[in-house]
Amino acid sequence: MKPIGKSRTRWHNVTMAFDYSPKFETFKDRTLYERLDGEEREVIRTLAFAYRFTFQEFRQVAEVARDLSLWGQGGLAKWYEARGARAEARGREGGGRGAATKKRLLRDLQSHLAELRRRPVGYSLEGATTPVQRAHKPIVTERSDKKIFGMCPVASEKTVCCNLHTIDAVENCVFGCSYCSVQTFYRDNIVFDADFARKLDELLIEPGRFYHIGTGQASDALAWGNRGGILDALCRFAAQHPDVLLEFKTKSDNVRYFIDNEAPPNVVCSWSLNTPVVIANEEHFTADLDRRIGAARAVADRGMKVAFHFHPMVDYKGWDREYPQVASMLMDSFRPEEVAFVSFGSITLIKPVIHKVRQLGNPTRILQADLVPDPHGKLTYPDAVKIRLFRTMREAFAGWHDQVFMYLCMEKASIWRESFGYVYDSNSQFESDFGRRTMAKLSA
User: Fold this and answer.
1) Which is nearest to 4 in space by CA: 59, 57, 51?
2) Quick count: other Cβ atoms within 10 Å of Cβ 379?
3) pLDDT band at 14 (very low <50, low <70, confident <90, very high)
4) CA separation for the pair 41, 43 (Å, rounded)
5) Cα separation of 420 and 407, whole Å?
6) Which of 31, 56, 178, 237 has the least C-beta neighbours within 10 A?
7) DSSP per residue over 290-358, as a string?
8) Which residues, other chains included, contact 152 with Cβ-Cβ below 8 Å and sequence gap of 6+?
9) Among 126, 174, 171, 117, residue whose Cα is nearest residue 148
10) Handedness of CA 55, 56, 62, 66 (dihedral sign)
């Protein structure tokens, strides 16, 4: 920080004719500035006064400072000492003053970020060096007129979709996965619907029509057990509608209800899986991989069908070795006739999630990636990265290809072709094939 310190008097004199203070006070309250540590704030403050940052420049530099900290890549102060001061010096040596030097400085900062994004992300199996604090979320039971049944929030004709329906039994989640969109949808409370059982009984389900219904979209499906009688109500619903495939998707190992109770044959328990290193670094407070697989094994031993979702797959150093290892664990632990389906998907982030990640300030490497817009405007990996991820995992499950239904979630037709070698002509065709193959297995 010495270059900044030596220059502060000169910069102060330059800016006396233009009082930047009112703008600075406004900008800092509208950005991540106050969430940064003292040294990072001092760098931004000094540079902002020296170069009279616009609001957008101020916001971008504050976000870069936050990202560098979250990624464990030093911080803005460290970057300035190593590179920023030299960029300023080059600007002045080239005759640059004011705006020209600022432009060079900001360009160098963005180049530094781009360079980090091009590097393979390296994780430690021990997880984040800074402990992640579990947020306190009061649990409440409320009456409301909210509907509990609808389409999957990402269902679209722009991607190849299975036409999943959802039932929201609980709003908000007890886990702390860094990439999860649930953290942006609801208040800080975890909300149980006091009228859930009644609303479930009143749903209009077309007789004879296949429905794939998931309960793990608004919260983890099994983390709560049978609190409030939600599993009792859902299993009664499944028994009343035998053409429904009712899926409980979880990252927990809380399967006591299904050990103690007989579930209808059209109920599937599914696990969202990841590699141990991703779980340790990005899926906070969830069950580890061994506990998830152990819980699935316990449910399968009760005669229930299970399923697995590798979603989101994360691109990091060692993924091409560690994801296939998880596939091998599953094939060693389960017979293909016990597994209803396996799906694959990648990191997909809505802008509010990115904002929330930066606000929370928990260590994460999820944003340290070259992310591009998907067909819905969300940020995700480039096609070439996804194809490598999905093709590798499909090949890892080669022994199950003819016996277990496998699919991609929320992906374009072109990625299906490159990863799986085929694609459905329509979402309805995908839904029909999914229903035919999985329901046949559930009734076997």
Assistant:
1) 51
2) 17
3) very low
4) 5
5) 8
6) 56
7) HHHHHHHHHHHHTT-EEEEEEEEE---TTHHHHHHHHHHHHHHH--GGGEEEEEEEE-EE-HHHHHHHH
8) 161, 163, 164, 165, 166, 214, 217
9) 171
10) positive
Rounded to two decimals, the pTM is: 0.91
Average pLDDT (230-257) is 97
For 171, list phi and psi in degrees, rounded to 5. Answer: -110, 125
**pLDDT for 124:** 87
- Write the DSSP symbol of residue 336: G
ω before 312 within 30° of 0 (cis)?
Answer: yes
215, 246 Cβ separation under 8 angstroms? yes
Residue whose C-alpha is closest to residue 179's, from 317, 360, 30, 35: 360
Report how far residue 272's alpha carbon sits from residue 368's, in angstroms, rounded to the nearest whole number. 22
Contact 269, 255 (CB under 8 A): yes
User: Would you say 151 and 204 are in contact if contact means Cβ atoms under 8 Å apart?
Assistant: no
Amino acid at 287: A
Distance separating alpha carbons of residues 405 and 403, to the nearest angstrom? 7
Secondary structure E strands in 64-145: 139-142
Q: What is the DSSP letter of 98?
A: T
- Look at residue 130 in the predicted model and tell me its pLDDT: 72
pLDDT tens digits for range 327-346: 999 999 999 999 999 999 99
Question: What is the full DSSP assignment across 373-419?
Answer: E-TTS-EE--HHHHHHHHHHHHHHTGGGTTTSEEEESSB-HHHHHHH
